[in-house]
Each structure stands twice: as structure tokens, then as C-alpha cells.
């Protein structure tokens, strides 16, 4: 079992690599090799099997051909230009998110080895006027270039799977929280920083009210789902290889209460509520009422309560911070 | 008003060119030039303005750049590799239907002239398990490569429009009947030939029962809708530039009765019913219960009864046959 993680330098890619190394097997077979690829060489964990790093721009077909060969059994295609950048720089979004995905799929087709391909899509495929709740069969009507490119990736994964070129599966990821690291310019940055910074003894600003609701998943559970997602039998997915990855809807108030239940009352005192209309204008348009029925039926799961998300951050990420 | 019809050599492209020449204007402006492009030089109708033919493989970005320049106001993108061929020859379907569409859109973006682009999509975007009736907001879950490529084209037309690179609109065409010409190998061939051949005094075979229902539009009405579709105000389409083109559901029995009402009882006697299970297996999976509400609200229309379709064939096509 040889595994390639494209986007192996990112938060989820790194955690996935560590978890797979701990687990030692995937799809019932011992892991015998792993490659972590990213735009720059990713950090390499220790592993009891050959593991290597590769720098690869998936927008280049030749680079993809050099990356993927016949001995790769499972490909995680996590690499993407994120929403804000794909919107401000249309070319790079198209290059990585659309042509990069096509390059990976075309390389798989040329090899004729039908690898398992796990593609990470996004809730951003949904937009415009769609009814709540969003179901697996709700129409994607993306209102961003990122969402458009992800929706196209889903269609391609489905068709390449139907034709037997790959054994694909595409999961629309919830917003990941608690993310380790530093705040960034993303509108969603506060959805991790209002927990992460207080748990590190620092102040954080919450730009929305306590009743703001959104759809979340912890990094640890996301990795578990990506592993489970690779193990699903292709035929069990029916006529569509795309589904929401499970997550759960919580309000900011519920999440803060969960932090207090796990870590005591100190951290919550470090959160300062400060309305930021420009952030609110963006995030209040996001969908949060989603029903990930298909993935749940196939064995993927959500965090039980946000207390889990807090605990996972304390166990997995705080020691390194 | 300069118009480019890509796929100008096909049935709809030719009829559209003739109709636009008769009409003399589009979007309230006098037509001052027209180019008909196709993979081989299309036939050129007489016109009171400069009209030219171009042979162009839209799979070649350079050829597309040579075809589209800043003085083009409206582009009809009708060219496509059809369903059967896109399924049997994956490469050519991807080349023309996906990359060809991308090449046209990218050329428009580079010109920065925001032309109106009318893209013809297909009912083939629908597939798998979807509830009846199919609405404009039903999820496309294509089960063919052709349907996948058309669904991707729709997403691209929407995003390029949202970004202001084009002023696009995408219409999912019903099955066109009565088509002039000869029977072909398409599973849907009988949906025209059981009327066309008898109206020409020849026998035809109907491979399905009289109660087989499907969703149809006449070539003449399709052309009218493509003209109306180019004239819709972009903002009136809301967050999605894609919609079903109106059509109407009829059974074979209703259609034959309509032929008899228009042309007397002789033609119907030339139809021989002969079960063809391999044809039935394909066409009975096709969706026929569709609600083209959005296009109807924007001024597009369906044929009132199949008698219209028969009359249009007699008026428009029989004389040339």
C-alpha cells in the first residue's frame, strides 16, 4: 500500500500522514511507502517504511507525471488554492484547482492502474438561493471561483470513477476548528482563534454575536474521515462519488461553553466581542444547516460535542504551539 | 452587432443563421456582420451584411484566438462532440466539450469585451437518482462524459459571468424533433425519423410503445429561444445563468395523432412498431418530466402542440429534402 498525499505540507496533510503512520495500514493492507507532495517540500515525519517529500506544482502536467507512477495505490488530493486567493487571482485558482485536478486525473487515466483518489471539496460549492437544510443532493450553485473549481473537480472525480480511470470519492469539508497556528486574513479565522488564543493565555476578538451558527469539524475527526473515506467500497456510493463530510452546527455561545467545560472559566474571559460588520457581511451568508446523511451512512462521523474539538486541540496541538 | 456562431455548420447553427439574417437585428441592434465557424467550413447563407465561414477546432487555443476578436458582440457556442462519441472517445469529448469551452471563455476574458455568450447545454446533465419533476434547481448528476462536460461548461459560464468576463447564459436543450436529414445511429434517431420518413412517403420503424413519453422542442422554436436567450438581461437571471430550455412532454401516440391531424392518415400507416430492447434500455432511462419554469418566466417558450412541430417540418425542411 503506497500512499501519495498531494498537499502533504498543509495542516490536514501533515496530520493525515502522522495518523496513517500510527495506523500502519489502509484498506486492509500494510502501508509500505508514502510520499508527501506540496508546492514546497513538506516536513517529513518519521516512519517505519520509506517516506519521501516532493515539491510539485500540480498545474504542470510534467511535474504530475513525475510524481505519480504505477506503484501508487491511494492518492489524497488535498492541495488547493484557497477561496480568497482563487477569487483575487483567477489564473492561479484555475491553474491549481481546475487544471491541477485535471492533471492528476489524467495522469491516473494514463497509468491505467485505477488508484483510489480522495478529493477534498468544500461547502463553498453551495451558494445563491438554495433551501435549508442542504442535502447531499442539493444543487451546487457556487458564487465564488473557488467553489466553481471545486464543483468541477467533483464532476470530474465522478466521471473518471464511472469510466474506471480512478476509484474516486469527493468530500465537502466543513469549516475546520480548532486549527492550530496563527490567525490569518481569512474571514473564518476567528472560528479557531477565539479558542486557540485564549487556551494559550492570549486575548482574541470575536467579530460576531454569541448566536452566530456555523458547521464545524475538528482536524482530528477530519483526518479520521479521510481515512474512512479512502476505505469505502466504491460501489457503495451509488451514482455520485460526492458527499458532505459530517460536521456539526454550533453557535459561538455553545462553543465557548464547551471550552469552559473542558478548560475552566479563564480562557473565555480572554474573548472580547467586537462587531466587525465587514466580517459579518461575509460569514453570515455562509450555509450552516447541512445534512451529511450519505457520509454518515457510509461510516464517516462528526465530533459529538465541541468539547471534543477543544480536547483534541489541547492533546494534539497545544504541546507543539 | 457582430455575431459569431460556433457550430454554425450544424442543424441548429444553420437555422439560427438564417433566422438572424431574416430578423436583421439582435438585442435591439442591427446585425452588421456574422461569422459561421465549425470544424469544417459551414455553408454560407446570403446576407445583406458581411458574412463569412471559418473552419476552427475549438480544442486549439490559437485557433480560437484567431476566431474571436474584439468586434464580436454575441457568441453562440453550439459546437459539441455528441453524447455517443464523447462516451466512446473520451479524449475528443474532453478536448472539444471541456477544453474547447474553456478556450472560448478564456479568449473572451483576455479580450476584456464581455461578449454575450449563449452556451447550449443538455438534459444529459441529469442522471442517477433524481426526483421528478426535474426543476431548474435539481442537482446535475451526469452519468455520461458528455453530460459531465456540459455540466462543467454551465459552471464555467456562470463563474465567468459572475466575474464579468462574459455575459453568459446556458440553456439545456430538449430533444429536437422533427429533425431533417437522415436517420443516424443515435438511440434518439427514431424520435424524428418516425415522422420525417412517413411525411416523405417512406416507412419507418418505431422501437418503443405508443405510450413512451419524452421532452421535445422543434428546431424552429429552439432557434427562437436561442435568439430570445441572447436578449435576456443578464441581471434578470439571478445567481445562476443556467436553465432548462422550454419543451413539452408528449407520448409517441400523441405525436402520431398530431401528424395525422396535420397531414392526414396516410403517414401514420407507414410507421411499423417493432420492439427493440437495446434501444428501449437506453431511452427509457431518460428523464422526461421537466419543469422549465425559469426560462418560461424570462420569455422563452415551448411548442404549443406537436402539430406545430409537424407543420414546421413541412414548411421549413420538407421542401429542401
Q: What can you see in these coordinates?
A:
Two copies of one chain form a homodimer. The first copy, chain A, contains twelve helices and 14 strands. Chain A is α/β, with parallel strands linked by helices and 321 residues long. The first copy, chain A, folds into two domains: 2-173, Rossmann fold (3-Layer(aba) Sandwich); 190-215 and 248-289 and 303-320, UDP-galactose 4-epimerase, domain 1, CATH 3.90.25.10. In chain A, the strands form four sheets. Chain A has a seven-stranded parallel sheet, with helices on both faces. Chain A has a three-stranded mixed sheet with strand order 9-11-13. In chain A, helix 1 crosses helix 7 (219-231) and helix 8 packs across helix 12. Chain A binds chain B through residues 90, 109, 127-130, 137-143, 145, 148, 151-152, 155-156, 158-159, 162-163, 238-240, and chain B through 90, 109, 127-130, 137-143, 145, 148, 151-152, 155-156, 158-159, 162-163, 238-240. Chains A, B: One of its GO terms (molecular function) is oxidoreductase activity. Chains A, B: Residues 3-202 form the NAD-dependent epimerase/dehydratase domain.
Which strand order does the major sheet of chain A show?
A: 5-4-1-6-7-8-12
- Oligomer state of the chains in this structure: homodimer
Radius of gyration of chain A: 19 Å
Percent helix among the residues of chain A? Answer: 40-55%
Individual helix count of chain A: 12
The level 1 CATH classification of the largest domain in chain A is Alpha Beta
Largest sheet descriptor of chain A:
7 strands, parallel
In whole angstroms, the N-to-C terminal distance of chain A is: 32 Å
Structural class of chain A: alpha/beta
Contiguous low-pLDDT stretches of chain A (5 residues minimum) are: none
How many structural domains does the protein architecture of chain A include? Answer: 2
CATH topology of the largest domain in chain A: Rossmann fold
Which two chains have the most extensive interface, and how many residues on each? A-B, 26 and 26 residues
CATH superfamily of the largest domain in chain A: NAD(P)-binding Rossmann-like Domain
- Please tell me what the overall shape of chain A is: globular
- Give the CATH architecture of the largest domain in chain A: 3-Layer(aba) Sandwich
Mean pLDDT of chain A: 96
Task: Let me know the number of strands of chain A.
Answer: 14
Strand content of chain A: 15-25%
N-to-C SSE series of chain A? EHEEEEHEHHEHEEHEEHEEHHEHHH
